[in-house]
Amino acid sequence: MKLGATKTSIKISTTQLSDEIGGSQQSASRHLQLLESEGMLERSITSEGSRVKITGHGQAELDLVLKELKWYLEGKEAQVIEFEGEVVSGLFEGAYYISKEGYHRQIVEKLGFEPFPGTLNVRISEEYYDRRRRLERGEFIRLEGFKDGERSFGAAHCFPCLINGEIEGALIVAERSIHDYGVMEIISPHYLRRKMELADGDKVRVSFLPLRRSDA
Q1: Same domain, 85 and 183
Q2: Which of 85, 102, 109, 136 could disulfide-link to 146, CB 3.0 to 4.6 Å?
Q3: pTM more than 0.70
């Protein structure tokens, strides 16, 4: 950003980058590889060396960091993070994953409830994307990955919430996937569609209180 990579691709060496971040060339190279793998920058190798450009996704993350810094420097205390969205149908994969003993056991132990085998899918509009990024950069409850036979299941992050201010649940997010910020997958001890008499298109409110480190 400082060197202008948000507007056009720039030429940069690992030596130059290591000087900027105060680390080794190896560390600079790893940073570039990680940012590229997460879709935050585009990198090409030319006869003159590496050229990099920050992607739209990378710019959004930088904007979020600036907003968070402004938030904390102004001394604002943690507040409820709230979303409003509409119920949508999913791919019905939730029941399969939540029923896996490796996840099910950890949900009971770490979230304190017996999960209904499925998820409530809530679509949110783009105006909430920065808010969701801020939520997911905060504290979370981690479900460890595990193996079931020959198949491996990855770790997931859980964010306890209230649906419509009264029914407990948790947003669940796969740790290593580039997920769709537009859909929130909510687990709960209840079959939420039946308990709340919800159908596709109905509006719901999902509220999150920031976790304390002792909770995570």
Answers
A1: yes
A2: 102
A3: no
Q: Are 140 and 186 members of one domain?
A: yes
Domains held by the chain: number: 2
Enumerate the H helices of the chain as residue ranges: 14-21, 25-37, 56-73, 94-98, 101-111, 129-136, 192-195
- DSSP labels, 42-96: EEEEETTEEEEEE-HHHHHHHHHHHHHHHHHHTTPPP--EEEEEEEE---S-HHH
* Residue 53 β-bridge partners: 42
pLDDT in tens for each of the 216 residues of the chain? Answer: 555 556 677 777 777 777 777 778 787 778 788 888 878 788 887 766 678 888 877 776 676 566 656 655 665 555 789 999 999 998 777 788 898 999 999 999 999 999 999 999 999 999 999 999 989 988 899 999 999 888 999 999 999 999 999 899 999 999 876 667 899 999 999 999 999 999 999 999 999 977 654 455
Residue 5 placed within a domain? no
Residue 50 domain boundaries: 10-73
Q: Do 172 and 158 touch, CB atoms closer than 8 A? A: yes
Does one domain contain both 119 and 53? no
H or E stretch covering 118: none
